[in-house]
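Slide 14.
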Amino acid sequence: MPSFQVSTIIGDFTSLLKALQTQGDVRVLSNPRVNIMNGQTALLCVGRNASFISRVETVTTAATGTVPTTSFTVEIGSVLSGIIMGIVPHINEKGEISLTITPIVSDLVSLENRTVGGVGGNTMQISLPTVDLRELSTMVKVRDSQMIIIGGLIQNRDKLQDNQVPFLGNIPLIGYLFKSREKISEKTELVIMLKPTIVTS
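Slide 15: predicted structure.
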């Protein structure tokens, strides 16, 4: 089971980022500013959309004495590889802010090609997506301008990296003697920082 941590602090983003940089490489994915009315929902999306064929319909027609023909009708879908976050704020009479926060991390692993066959030899290629999802839903209560930190959205990824001696690794037959393959493990953690501020009109 994944472990998530939610904490609140008083501080600023710059100081916190400097503290995180002492633990490893830090990359800022997005720094949006959004105005939300009390009780309304805001949806933030950061990432890349990948399109795929989500549905295929085939229609086969055949006149007397002719070879049947098949036509395809396709529907295109899309999947986000990135971060989706929903935020719903509620402010009470004491000026306290209750936030319902739902971050979803979507990672497109692969698009697998499949061949759809029809009558008469007509075929077409479709792609089926494989997506890894990490999702969390939590509610926190903070005061005006108090920072919220959500951590624990951790991903471990293994990949193979090929290395070779320049020129020698390309020699036919014996080139494999100058090549090596190593397994590299990467561990990344998504940290979400929010700073709600009450704006009066």
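Speaker note: DSSP finds one helix and eight strands in the chain.
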